[in-house]
Design goal:
Belongs to the peptidase S16 family. Archaeal LonB subfamily. By secondary structure, the chain is α/β, with parallel strands linked by helices. Helices cover 42% and strands 16% of the residues. The chain has 4 domains: 1-21 and 322-494, Helicase, Ruva Protein, domain 3 (Orthogonal Bundle); 73-103 and 189-315, P-loop containing nucleotide triphosphate hydrolases (Rossmann fold, 3-Layer(aba) Sandwich); 115-170; 503-701, Ribosomal Protein S5, domain 2. A hairpin with a 4-residue loop joins strand 16 (524-531) and strand 17 (536-548). The radius of gyration is 41 Å and the shape is elongated. Bound molecules: adenosine-5'-triphosphate.
């Protein structure tokens, strides 16, 4: 199975610490996208759920973080004193916080002095001058007094003018606290960023302006520059912006992203029109990021063409890989990673092999392995949970067996020891915890012991050491075994559809009118379907009746139009061919290949949801031919496959699930298209017959005497 032999995964090498080396099966995509990111190209990753899109981007983030020179930056917002509703957001490089904060403190002018203050200043000035001028001759006095009064008045008016002019310029009343005018740090980016955002979260993606908490404009409430919320597009400046779930991206958001990609900057304004934030808008803020988007294959239909055009790389991730030894080793590497990354118990060789088989089954082919690894990861975790649960109960049995602690016996001495010492004894408390943990019960006892406390203490210590050893053993991690993995698979707890299908089969199978040992019957054949899109197959009894009638028509029961029309046309053409080349005889007076006077009824018996799909065309077609030509069909087989006009059997999906269903209903044979035979995983217990053409089908299907 694998290139190395091992007992448990503990024998295998540790996984690489670098996330990029942990991505398996997507080598080509990793190389392309890594190259794109290094060159700052935008990329779109498409693929099935759980194939590793997010994991890859996270790994790129890790790589880029340590690559090349990066100058840390800080984004701050400052009040705009000219227009408070337009705060200024700036990106400053380097470690700027201490540098900018004191410097940027805006200066607020004081209130202009009042008239009274000015008159008092003038009077004071005159008095001081007169005091200094004592002794000056009277002739000069008048001139000096006049001059000083004029000078004083002039000075007072200059002060008044400057004060009024300055205060108007500031235009901020002195009731604003200086703290409100300080710049605010919005975001510090110490290393190259990888920012993840969901496509539907507009605020997270593009930023917003908070509603003013006090409902009014500044200065009553919080000033606008303190209400700015940066978007992921701004926080991803100089790094990667990873947007997943692209299906949910609103069209207007796509336009904003497009502008951001183009201009490498985007302003933030309030997104809620009913909020006071709506009147606020910042200047355009730098956002030079590399965009990586991801989604499932059909999600692209939601993306607008102009945005799609700006995405340079569009990469589709694989959902399966070839089933080679090299790739099975990769799957093993994945199992080891999951165990290590999630701190799980090791896994045995047999359990790992079972996971490989499951990977085959989920891929739909023996020659492939699924790369929808999230599903496998979930199964590993669930098997671990089962294994861990089992460990506890096994440990419990071990203790009981060794007599280390008689947990089932409420009269047992161990109960007494615990009971007596648990009062104020830490170790007894610990013992109680361990016991409770192992039994899953809450310990309780009312008995007393006649031993001395010291004796009990010694005994207790011995038992505690036993229990500690057991606890240690729990930590030694008993491996996840084959049975644990099988249990997860049998219960189907990893898939909702599988459980619904299992439930359906369990409750319905016994009522189904299916007889694998029945006599050959005209117009009755057993087809195969996959229930709920995955996981389980089911057998469907298809019945057709062709009657002579003056007004030809077709009635379809539990079958949708296209498949039936297709099959009727095919059956008509192929039956003519089979009769004309002598492969099939025309039997009885009702037989005939001319449909122009026939009434045709086709039923998918006991199928209560509409069935459609190409894989039933061979069955329906053979059933119609049987009815048209009145030739019985053998009942010991099921068939799946699609027929074309040349009579070639074409490939279908879910071949393994269908074969299992035929086995389940105890059919002896199952007919499958030849091209699907290579996908068949398990042929035990049933004869799987690969068929290439209609001619090969005839002797297998019809009971021709
Ligand atoms: N190629 C892979 N190599 C290794 N582990 C993988 C790979 N793909 C998936 N996994 C495992 O599955 C988990 C989920 O994968 P991830 O979230 O990357 O899938 P996704 O493609 O982004 O899925 P979705 O489309 O649902 O978001 C990963 O954390 C990892 O444990």
């Amino acid at each position: 199975m694998f290139s190395t032999k091992f007992t448990t995964t503990d024998d295998l090498p540790e996984p690489s610490p670098n996330l990029i080396n942990q991505v398996i099966g997507q080598d080509e995509a990793v190389e392309i996208v890594l190259n794109a990111v290094k060159n700052k190209r935008h990329a779109l990753l498409l693929g099935d759920p759980g194939v590793g899109k997010s994991m890859m981007v996270k790994a790129f983030g890790e790589l880029l973080e340590n690559s090349g020179h990066f100058t840390p930056y800080t984004i701050i917002s400052k009040p705009n004193l000219k227009n408070t509703e337009k705060p200024m957001v700036e990106l400053l490089e380097g470690n700027v916080i201490e540098r900018i904060m004191p410097e940027e403190k805006p200066k607020v002018m004081r209130q202009p002095p009042s008239m009274l203050t000015l008159v008092l200043i003038m009077l004071g000035f005159i008095l001081v001058t007169q005091f200094l001028l004592k002794g000056v001759p009277e002739t000069q006095m008048l001139g000096i007094v006049a001059t000083t009064t004029i000078v004083g008045t002039l000075i007072a008016f200059i002060i008044l003018f400057l004060a009024i002019f300055g205060a108007t310029k500031a235009s901020m009343p002195n009731s604003i606290s200086p703290a409100d005018l300080k710049p605010m740090v919005l975001y510090e980016c110490p290393k190259r960023p990888l920012v993840r955002a969901s496509a539907y979260n507009t605020t997270k993606l593009l930023g917003d302006i908070k509603h003013c908490p006090l409902g009014g404009k500044p200065p009553i409430g919080t000033p606008p520059h303190k209400r700015v919320i940066l978007g992921a597009i701004h926080e991803a400046h100089k790094g990667i912006l990873y947007v997943d779930e692209i299906k949910t991206m609103p069209l207007d958001v796509q336009d904003y992203i497009l502008t951001a990609i183009q201009d490498k900057k985007l302003a933030i304004s309030g997104r809620n029109p009913n909020s006071s934030g709506a009147s606020v808008e910042t200047n355009p803020i730098p956002c030079d990021f590399t965009l990586i988007m991801s989604g499932n294959m059909d999600d692209v239909s939601n993306l607008r063409a102009p945005l799609m055009d700006r995405i340079d790389y569009k990469v589709v991730l694989k959902n399966k890989m070839d089933n080679t030894t090299e790739n099975r080793d990769k799957l093993l590497q994945f199992i080891v990673q999951e165990i290590k990354n999630n701190n799980l118990n090791p896994m045995t060789y047999e359990a790992c092999c079972e996971l490989v088989k499951l990977a085959q089954l989920l891929s739909g082919s023996k020659n492939k392995l699924t790369l929808r690894l999230r599903r496998l990861s979930n199964i590993i975790k669930m098997a671990n949970d089962i294994a861990t649960g089992k460990e506890l109960s096994e440990s419990l049995n071990e203790f009981t067996k060794n007599g280390a602690l008689d947990l089932d016996d409420n009269e047992g001495e161990s109960d007494l020891i615990i009971e007596q010492l648990s009062q104020g004894d830490k170790e007894a408390g610990k013992l109680k915890n361990v016991v409770n943990k192992i039994t899953g019960k809450t310990y309780k006892s009312t008995k007393k012991s006649n031993k001395s406390v010291d004796e009990l203490r010694i005994e207790l210590k011995a038992r505690i050491s036993d229990l500690n050893a057991a606890e240690g053993k729990l930590k030694d991690k008993k491996p996840i075994e084959l049975a644990d993995v099988e249990r997860v698979l049998d219960t189907g707890i990893y898939s909702m559809q599988k459980q619904v299908a299992m439930d359906y089969l369990e409750n319905f199978k016994e009522y189904k009118n299916i007889h694998p040992n029945g006599e050959p019957t005209v117009g009755v054949i057993h087809g195969l379907a996959v229930l709920g899109g995955e996981g389980l197959g089911d057998v469907t009894r298809i019945i057709t009746k062709v009657l002579n009638a003056k007004n030809p028509k077709t009635s379809l029961l539990n079958i949708t139009g296209d498949i039936a029309k297709h099959s009727i046309t095919l059956a008509s053409a192929l039956s003519k061919k089979l009769v004309s080349d002598g492969t099939l005889p025309l039997k009885g007076k009702d037989g005939g290949t001319d449909l122009s006077e026939k009434e045709i009824y086709i039923q998918f018996s006991q199928s209560y949801s509409k069935i459609d799909g190409d894989s039933a065309t061979a069955a329906v077609c053979l059933s119609i031919i049987s009815s048209l030509l009145n030739i019985p069909i053998k009942q010991d087989f099921c068939i799946t496959g699609s027929l074309d006009l040349n009579g070639d059997m074409l490939a279908i999906g879910g071949v393994n699930e269908k074969i299992n269903a035929a086995k389940e209903y105890q059919f002896r044979r199952v007919i499958v298209p030849y091209s699907n035979y290579k996908d068949v995983i398990n042929i035990e217990g049933i004869e799987v017959i690969p068929v290439k053409t209609l001619d090969e089908l005839i002797p297998l299907v019809f009971d021709i005497q």
